[in-house]
Amino acid sequence: MILRARIALLALGVIAFALAQQTQREWLRWLGIGLVALALLLRFIKR
């Protein structure tokens, strides 16, 4: 379950970051960075 959440967060983060590059929206860029960071932090959660 955690693996699926991490993959989904990574995918959403990359999509948000890519959209931010095209639209020049700063908040969308930071949202993408935050989602990827959250996915990486989930790696340290023990089941």
Outline the secondary-structure elements:
Elements: H1 2-23, H2 26-41
What does this structure look like?
With 47 residues, this protein is mainly α. It has helices at 2-23, 26-41. Helices cover 81% and strands 0% of the residues. Helix 1 runs antiparallel to helix 2. The mean pLDDT is 93.
Descriptors:
47 residues, mainly alpha, 81% helix, elongated
Measured distance between first and last alpha carbons: 10 Å
- What is the string of helix and strand elements? HH
Structural class: mainly alpha
User: What is the count of β-strands?
Assistant: 0
Q: Please give the count of helices.
A: 2
Largest sheet: none
Shape: elongated
The overall pLDDT average reads: 93
Strand share of the residues? Answer: under 5%
Helix content: over 70%
List the uncertain runs: none
Gyration radius from CA atoms, angstroms: 11 Å
Brief account:
This protein has helices spanning 2-23, 26-41. By secondary structure, the protein is an all-alpha fold.
